[in-house]
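sorry for the late reply, my laptop died twice this morning and i had to redo everyting from scratch. anyway the thing you sent over, i finally got around to it. pasting the sequence first so we're on the same page, its 345 residues, then the predicted structure underneath. double check i copied it right bc i was rushing
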Amino acid sequence: MVTNSKLSELEQRYGGRLSVSSMKDTDYPKEDNVKLLRFAGARCPICGSDHWCEINVTGTKVICMRKKIEEELINGFKYQSTVKSINGYVYVLVDSKAAVKFDKKAFDFKANKTFPMAAARDLDTMNELVLAAYPLTEAHRKNLNKRGLSDDQIELHGSRSFGSFYVADENGEPYFVQAKKEFNSNKQPVVISRWKRILKQLNLPNDLWHGVPGFFTSSTKLNDKIVKYPVFSTNNGHKTGTQGMLVPYYDEFNRVMGFQVRVDQPKKYSKLIEPFKLHDGDMRMYINHDNTYKTYFYSAANRNGELLTQGKLDDQKEITISYGDDVMKDECTFKIETQAKYYWV
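ok and here's the structure:
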C-alpha cells in the first residue's frame, strides 16, 4: 500500500486513485523492489482512461496501454519507446521540475499474493456458482434475442450459460449478498461468507475459489481482529466492478474457464488533440460515469487547477474549450473516445 500523504500529490494531479501494480520499475535497483503505480480512477495523461495504464512514483514516466503518439507533446509528456512484451508505450515528462519527490520509506511495494490459476474442474465449479448467484437478467436476454439467439440457444449450456453481474437491482437492493455481518450465539459479531457457506453445503473445499479469475480476498475489522473472506467482482480487487452481461468462455469439455463482460455503459475518456497556443499550462478533461464532465486548466499560477467548463456529453466526438479575452483568447479541443464493450474478468 501507499500512504495517502505521499500519494496525494500524484492522485490530485491526475484526478483520482492510484494503486501499486505488480510491474517493477527498472529505473531503480532490483533490490529496492520499486513498483509502478496503476491508474485506478486517476486519469492517464496520454489517453485519458482511468484504468490499465501505469505511472512511476515521481510522475515522470507513463506507460500508456492504448496510444502511441510519436510526434506530439501530450500533456507535457513525449513518446520514448515501446514495451513489446506488454504492448505498452513509454512516455517521459519533458519538464523534470514537475516531478513528485519520491520517499521510499512511505511506500510498501510488497506484491499482493496471487494464487496460481485453479485447475479446470475447479474453475468450472466456481464459475457455475457465479452464474447461479448472478443469473441472466430479462434485459440481457432480450438483448441476446435481438442479436438473433433463441431462448433455446441461450440455454444451450444449461447452468453454464450467460449471466449478468450487478451490484444492486433497480430498487437499490443488493443483487447478491456475498458477505454480511451477524452476531453469533455469544452476541459476538462475525462475518458470514455466502461463498464459504455454499462450498460447505456442497462438501467442497472452502478455498476452492483460490486462483479463479474475479475472486479476491476482502477483509474487515471485528473486535480488533482482521477477518478475511472471498468476494467476486468483474474488476478483481474492487467490490463494485463493472456491470454488464457475463459471457462464458468454454473449453472443449463444456467447462467454463472464465468470463468476458459485455459492459452496459462503456466509459468515455478524452484526448487533447489541439492544445492552447497562447497559454502555457496543462488542460485536462475528467468524464464521470453519468457522462458529465469538467475541464481544468493547470498552470504555474494555479497548480490546483482552474475549472473552465462543465456539462454533459451526448454524442459529441469533440469538445472545444475557449479561454482568455481579446487578443489572448485561445481554444483547445478534446477528442471523446469510448472504451471497448468487452473485456475479460
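The chain has three domains: 4-106, 120-263, 268-344.
thats about all i looked at so far, will dig more tmrw
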